[in-house]
Design goal:
The protein is an alpha/beta fold. The chain is built from 18 helices and 27 strands. Strands 5, 6, 7, 8, 9, 10 and 22 form a seven-stranded mixed sheet that branches. The protein has a five-stranded antiparallel sheet with strand order 23-24-27-26-25, sandwiched between helices. It has a four-stranded mixed sheet with strand order 2-1-3-4, with helices on both faces.
């Protein structure tokens, strides 16, 4: 029971233990005190046994009350079924003092520490609902037939060893489930392979951020260091008439960057395998395909076939890049290949206007490559239009060429180059063509048709409600779930929340709203909540106020070539309630800036909460606390002074 629920209904908490147990007496005493303070909200029912043996006979051996509680709570609450110490605490819908009835149990709380934690939450002032729209964030699951006494190989089999699958497996194992992770990386069409950890670790967030950082370091060397006096000699000052100039571009070794990034990734792969072993999760390096709703057929790298059975299965296979669909499209690589490319990328064409395409274009340009982006329609579809436009302008200033309103129609080999013909009839030659036009669920070879799991034919992703598919004992999390934000922390949180519902007695749903994200383009973009266009469409233009500001980050202020670049932030606010609907930030360290605001958004913050917060000076995050100019006022939004 949540504290919010406790505020509106009477909670009946049962505390069972033996009389000489100090932990039992402490838990019962605290609950008794609260029941005196809140007689209309809380009632204590004590079940006191004269000895430890009598208590354990009731809990474990004779009556076996813990097992009956576990079975009552959704097919086997493993925490309850494994609890063996005094006290044993639960909530119920009745104050019946019978020590044998488990049918009325609502929630297993746990032991003394768990009971005290429950009491702390109960005594707190009512908090806003976890869901920011005021609805209870409760998952209504369909019974999946799981029983603790099943005869299958595993309580839970997870397909996919990415961030979500690994997090879910460890959480389920912690709750007492017997868990296996089945993970086998199929090579990309270009032949790239990687280890345990999924897209984020191997071909996504981690190598992307490292290469983005390489671009930032190079930019600092060229544009910032000489103006901060780093590397400046008296001779260079005299030659430039007492002024400092930008450095010429530094030489860069792609091989060194790639090798160091891959070494770091291999270290993470090893740590993940060790972590699974320490958490008692079985790792199976096998390719799987559904035979029926409780059986997977497995194939190892030598072609040996076997089967694994399970009571519950969680599909967490993620997605793969959508291939380029034109003549010669197989010559293009994808984000699955760029981070381990065994040659210098040279002159690069990035096809697509997704955040993946723009991030790759950004770091490649930042380390000195000649980069072009082919854009079919608009940049960063799904993100705020104003911010997307500012990112595009900044990237053009950085020297990235944009071919707009075109798509490749033909790729052909010309010597060592790839000649690309575009839909407007123009053509050019490149050393590397990187396609980043979207991602599809990696489900085509899972045999989902054998068990009747529904899949969206447009993107091969699995349809699910509360992560539960059309087959009740088969679940989906992360990028493979249709409609799920393709973000690593989302998969991790969803996986943990689902494991707690399946094996921990929780009913808490994953909240997919107001999730922070950052696009690591050369001008970093952090965002949470509604875009301006989305807010207007949802609430009406007359109900939305936009506060905005342009500013020059202090760290850019000494560099003449940075002077034309500006940061930007805006808050989208409900005019009637003052509630913040969305926050957007363009500037250095966007991820670090936005993370804290994400917590505020989740708690339902109002615009006044932000502007009444004392800012940390001098920082770029502080700019949000000084927002005062609205778009509708027409006033100049450029910052003045410090």
């Amino acid at each position: 029971m949540t504290s919010a629920a406790a505020a509106t209904t009477k909670s009946i908490i049962h505390v069972a233990g033996y009389s000489s147990c100090g932990f039992y007496r402490r838990a019962a005493s605290v609950v008794a005190s609260l029941s005196l303070l809140f007689p209309h909200r809380l009632q204590l029912v004590q079940h006191e046994f004269t000895s430890r043996d009598e208590f354990r006979e009731w809990l474990i051996h004779g009556t076996n009350f813990r097992e009956r509680v576990g079975n009552t709570l959704g097919g086997g609450n493993l925490r309850a079924s494994a609890h063996s110490s005094s006290p044993f605490c639960w909530t119920s819908n009745t104050a019946d003092q019978s020590s044998n009835s488990a049918d009325s149990v609502l929630e297993f709380i746990g032991g003394c520490d768990d009971a005290l934690d429950w009491c702390r939450k109960f005594a707190q002032p009512p908090a806003p609902s976890t869901s920011t729209d005021g609805e209870a964030n409760i998952a209504e699951m369909v019974p999946d037939g799981h029983s603790p006494s099943h005869s299958y190989d595993y309580d839970l089999l997870i397909l996919g060893g990415g961030s979500g699958g690994l997090a879910a497996s460890k959480e389920a194992a912690k709750l007492g489930a017997k868990v296996a992770v089945l993970d086998y990386v199929k090579p990309s069409p270009a032949g790239s392979k990687w280890g345990l950890g999924g897209t984020c670790v191997n071909v996504g967030c981690i190598p992307k951020k490292l290469m983005h950082n390489a671009a930032l370091l190079n930019g600092n060397y060229v544009h910032d260091q000489p103006h901060y006096g780093i590397g400046v000699t008296p001779e260079s000052i005299e030659a430039n008439y007492g002024m400092t100039q930008d450095n010429t571009a530094a030489t860069h070794s792609w091989d060194m960057l790639k090798q160091n990034v891959q070494n770091h990734i291999r270290g993470l792969n090893f740590k993940y395998r060790v972590d699974l072993r320490e958490k008692e999760v079985t790792y199976l390096n096998l390719l799987g395909k559904f035979v029926d709703k409780n059986t997977i057929e497995t194939v190892d790298k030598k072609g040996n076939v076997d089967t694994v059975t399970f009571s519950r299965c969680m599909v967490a296979v993620g997605g793969r890049p959508t291939p380029l669909n034109c003549e010669g499209g197989e010559m293009a690589i994808s984000s699955d290949d760029i981070f381990s490319l065994d040659r210098d990328p040279g002159k690069v064409l990035c096809v697509g206007a997704s955040y993946i395409s723009l991030e790759c274009a950004g770091f490649l340009r930042g380390i000195g490559k000649d980069v072009t982006v082919a854009v079919r329609s608009i940049l960063l579809r799904g993100f705020d239009r104003e911010c997307a436009k500012l990112i595009g302008e900044h990237m053009k200033d950085e020297g990235i060429v944009f071919r707009e309103e075109v798509v490749p129609t033909k790729l052909e080999k010309v010597g060592e180059k790839i000649k690309v013909t575009f839909s407007n009839g123009e053509s050019d030659e490149y050393d590397t063509v990187l396609a980043a036009i979207g991602r599809s669920g990696d489900t085509s070879k899972l045999g989902l048709e054998n068990v009747g799991v529904a899949v969206n034919p447009k993107n091969s992703k699995i349809s699910a409600k509360f992560e539960q598919t059309s087959v009740p004992n088969i679940y989906a999390i992360g990028d493979v779930m249709d409609g799920c934000p393709e973000l690593t922390p989302v998969a991790i949180h969803a996986g943990k929340a689902l494991s707690r519902r399946l094996f921990g007695g929780s009913n808490q749903a994953m909240d997919y709203r107001n999730i922070c994200t950052t696009v690591f383009t050369p001008l970093e973009y952090g965002t949470v909540g509604y875009s301006e266009d989305e807010a207007i469409a949802e609430f009406g233009e007359e109900s939305v106020t936009v506060y905005h500001k342009y500013f020059i980050p202090l760290e850019w202020s000494l560099s003449p070539s940075r002077g034309s670049h500006q940061g930007f932030c805006k808050a989208i606010v409900n005019k009637h309630t003052d509630k913040v609907l969305g926050l957007h930030y363009l500037g250095p360290n966007a991820g670090e800036v936005m993370q804290g605001f994400g917590t505020a958004m989740k708690l339902g913050c109002k615009f006044e909460d932000i502007t009444e917060t004392v800012g940390i000076h001098p920082t770029t995050a502080e700019e949000f606390t000084t927002l005062s100019i609205t778009k509708e006022s027409g006033e100049d939004a450029a910052a003045s002074g410090c």
